[in-house]
Specification:
The structure is a single chain. With about 260 residues, the protein is of the alpha/beta class. The chain has a single domain, classed as TIM Barrel, CATH 3.20.20. The chain is built from 11 helices and 9 strands. The strands form 2 sheets. Strands 1, 2, 3, 4, 5, 6 and 7 form a 7-stranded mixed β-sheet that branches. The protein has a two-stranded antiparallel ribbon with strand order 8-9. α5 crosses α6.
Amino acid sequence: MDAAVSADLEALGITDHDTLAGYDLAEPLAQAAGLELVCGVEISTRFHGRSVHLLGYFAKPPTAEFREWLLALQSSRRDRNRRLIERLRSLGLDISLEEVEAKGRSMTGRPHFARVLVEKGYVTTLEQAFEDYLDESAKGYVQRREVPMREGIERVLAGGGVPSLAHPIRIGRRIERHPNNVSDELERWILEMRDMGLRAIEVFHSDHRPEDVERYLDMARRFDLGITGGSDFHGANKPRVELGRGFEGNLAIPRSVLDDLRAM
């Protein structure tokens, strides 16, 4: 919250994976700082056999039922972490779950594994940790139970939120492109998600170049979807991504995005 104030941000959305704990802790601090705080969450879903991230934004804190559902996702994450430790140890890496959990505390994920791998000298950078061991195509990867996209969308809607597709550029990198190099398949996927209840797509993101932003703006208009945006700030895990300002300052989200999200 101090960093958001120092960056002169008007508003901040906290969208941690599978938990609202950060939002709950930040709410009184935001009020004291006069900063508009947006309640959100990010969920790993499965869609056409691939991992796709879904954002949920809430005008007011979501229902108790939604929070209980998030607890089940957290349990699945802990199970994956135990299996990931076993896999990494089988590859000759001397790493313990206790070491990783000391980094991630209540919500430990792959970035915290990466930090331990760097500190122990198995890799030199966080990027190399993912490339060699933690990414979906890496030799150490262990899949966690991801909910179907339809379930994720329906849960966000039932919890009183707006479901938005996170960083669509990452999906475009993974699906096959047609011979004319136009990702018609991505558009079909987004239309399918819209029919499931998707309400918005993340147009503004640190990974998106200006031409990507224009493309997703056009998609949102054509498919009658709302627009969301965020820096996807991860602190020390992504040191070149600045809070609210993106990758080395490449991001500027207009106030209208938040106003429209509130209206939705």
